[in-house]
Amino acid sequence: MDTPSPSSSSSSSPFDLVSSALGKYIPRGGAAAADASGAPDETTARVRVHPNPGAGLQEQILGAVNLDRELRITRSNLDAPVFAGLDVVTGSPFVDLLPPWDVPTVTRRLRQVLETGEAHVARVQRLRRADGSELVVSMSILSAAAPQEGLTVSLIAMARRLHLYAAETAIGTSLDIGETAQSLAESLLAWGDVAAIDLDFAVWTGEGVTEHGQGRIRLRRAALVPDRVWPEGYVTEGDDLPKDASHLLAQAIRRDDAAQAIVIPDRESIERVLGSPKLVRALVPSNRSAGVACIPLVLDGSPPVVLGVAEVWRRADRPFNDGELLDLQELVARTSHHVDLARQHQREHTQVLALQRRLLPRTGGDTVETASVYQPATPDSAGVGGDWVNSFPLPDGRTALVVGDVVGHGLGAAATMGQLSMEARALLSAGLAPDEVLEHLDKTVTMLDDAESGLAAGYSALGSTCCIAVYDPVSHRVALSSAGHLPPVLVLPDGRAAPLAVRPHPGLGAEFALREPFGVHTFAAPPGSLLALYTDGLVEDPAVPIDEGIGRLADAVSTVHPWDVLEEAARWVVSGLSPQRGRDDVTLLLARMIGYRKGDTATWRLPARDDAAARARTLVSALLREWRTRDDTRDRVLLLVSELVTNAVRFARGPITVRLIRAGHGLLCEVGDTGNGRPRLGRGGLLDDGGRGLHVVHRLTARWGVRWTDTGKVVWAVVAR
Fold first, then answer.
1. What percent of the chain has pLDDT over 90?
2. How do residues 120-142 score in pLDDT, each as one tens digit?
3. Which 8-state DSSP code applies to residue 584?
4. From CA 455, how far away is CA 326, in angstroms rounded?
5. What is the pLDDT of residues 509-550, one digit of tens each?
6. Closest Cα to residue 466, out of 544, 541, 526, 518?
7. I need a surface site. Which of 493, 504, 572, 691 has the fewest CB within 10 A?
8. Beta 134-143 vs 656-663: how paired, if at all?
9. Which range is least confidently modeled, 272-286, 406-420, 613-627?
């Protein structure tokens, strides 16, 4: 078998690919020559460039540096004249080539590429020459090709025009307004020592920008480079500029009602314009900064809209010339629309996130303790997704736990998410079982997919998932139905944890051939049990099977102690399991089952005979005396039980179940039978021709309703104590 040569084994590495591309960027008349010793050394892959001094002096030149996992230089190809003066020494740290204030940021980027393998492309960066001058390059960080480990850093020394092009390309790669502002500031650093982006507060929050009245101007610092420790009182990223500073900047750039760039050339002029030591401390980066160029970010329109101000600060020995100001204005003008696109995305993101937060459960009722966590995906995703959870007490004393994941991101997914969440709550409150609710949601998703008549025209929610669990605090049992959702995890009081064996089912809106009845899975959840409902963003990891991700969740939830604060436990579980750079939203709902105490409930089964009402009154009366219920409350409950049992005997067959629950500030009375008729509150006020009807029940109770069971129905009513 032939053994590959060293050159062939490394020919596909990023370092060698960049090195081999050097010849494409040599000006006409130039040549690449080998070392004086003859053939080029394959271990260093150096290319010496001899440009024609009469042409192409501003052409871009590529170079490459290989780094090991400790970020030390292992080899380099920076022999082109444009890189002259860079002190590149094998074995030395790469960050020695950087200005001190850039070291933390660049180190963080380098290690991020090492950990994730995702390339960081086209960062505008300064490199220090031995004589103290600086070289502006476009720097890309790539993972080294196997079998080598480490990184390859490619460098492009650019002409000013190419710098503008590369900067605009880098700025338009994100829809996050903070990252967009940061990219613009990093690009502007090629013209100065410090760059800052101050945005109108309405732009920062995603709102539209209109003309402002005097005194209402507010600027927020969206980006500041380089990344270093700033003196106390200086406005840094995320801070609002002082009101006077915002007003001065706005006045300066809007002279004659037109946005214009301005230059304040020296320190004396700066102090005179700002007018107070406080503003000087807030805006001037250091004593060496003697001049500043303020460039408005203008959105073309009629009239033009000013989104904010870009500021570039320089030392006294580097005054701005006219050519540089034109370049600055051109770069800011080219990239202002990227800022506005990020503003629009921020607005949608904020709206969807507000809806998402609003749908999070506020309380689980007296019989269930709940805690939820919602963590949106990384800002560079397409937008907030359609994950939602909810928990709410049902009118009949049970508690509903719902989790869903709507397909897609953004406002279309949010609108569908809100509709499904509210519809599920309404149907569950009306007494429908979890499987019946899913049948209705399935029809809703199918209807919404109709682009002509659907409420979300142009957006498809087919394949969305949902899981509904209803907890009975008396029997301590849970009825659960799922439509394509991942199985919940149940932790029993003894600490055993496992995902529930829920029968798989297609998602909502599946094709007709795939549709089948939704199943109901019923299981015991003794007091102290913990139920975890979640969305796939919490357990999905491309590197491991989904079953392993669910197993990790079960292990994490099993460590939650019964005395732990549930909100803190939920946050701890999410922080330990969610990926560092998630592409999907993460949602978790923890529900700790409490239930009713044994002494707060009583159940009787009575034959459907004429004396059933009298028997029920006797049993209930004795219990109410034991509970020391007030006389007026006892009278109302006895009359209510008599009416409900009498109607059950008349219109149903089989045994009758009477259940009384002492809950909070009321008494919950339930009467179950085997009938399937639906009691209605009629206009005549009578349940039937000979009875007093539901109007008596309606007057006696705070609220009442009906829910259906596998064997019949239950009429429930609440009487205030």
1. 16
2. 887 778 888 887 777 878 888 99
3. S
4. 49
5. 876 546 678 889 999 999 999 999 999 888 888 778 889 989
6. 518
7. 504
8. unpaired
9. 406-420
Q: How far apart are CA 488 and CA 404, in angstroms?
A: 12
| Nearest C-alpha neighbor of 644 from the set 666, 663, 623, 616 | 616
Is the omega angle on the peptide bond into residue 231 within 30 degrees of 0, that is, cis? no
Residue 189 amino acid letter? L
Mean pLDDT of the region 285-291: 72
Q: How far apart are the first and last CA of the chain?
A: 91
* Residue appearing with tokens 């639906």: 678
Give the containing element (helix H, strand E) for 401: strand 399-409
Are 661 and 596 in contact, with CB atoms under 8 Å apart?
Answer: yes
d(Cα 698, Cα 704) in Å, to the nearest integer? 7
Instruction: Please name the residue that has the structure tokens 């209930």.
Output: 620
Tokens of 3: 């053994």
* 130 three-state secondary structure: coil
Whether the CB-CB separation of 76 and 66 falls below 8 Å is answered with yes
Q: What is the pTM of this model?
A: 0.56
> Which residue, 184, 159, 157, is CA-closest to 170?
184
Q: The tokens 């506020």 sit on which residue?
A: 362
Q: Which amino acid is at 180?
A: T
Which residue type sits at 62? Answer: L
The amino acid present at 485, given as its one-letter code, is H
DSSP letter assigned to residue 706: E
Contacts of 39 (CB under 8 A, 6+ apart): none
Cα–Cα distance measured from residue 685 to residue 694, given in angstroms and rounded to the nearest whole number: 7
Burial string for 223-254 (b: 16+ CB within 10 Å, else e) reads bbbbbeeeeeebbebeeebbeebbbbbbebbb
- 95 CB-side CA count, 13 A: 14
The alpha-carbon radius of gyration of the chain (Å, integer) is 35
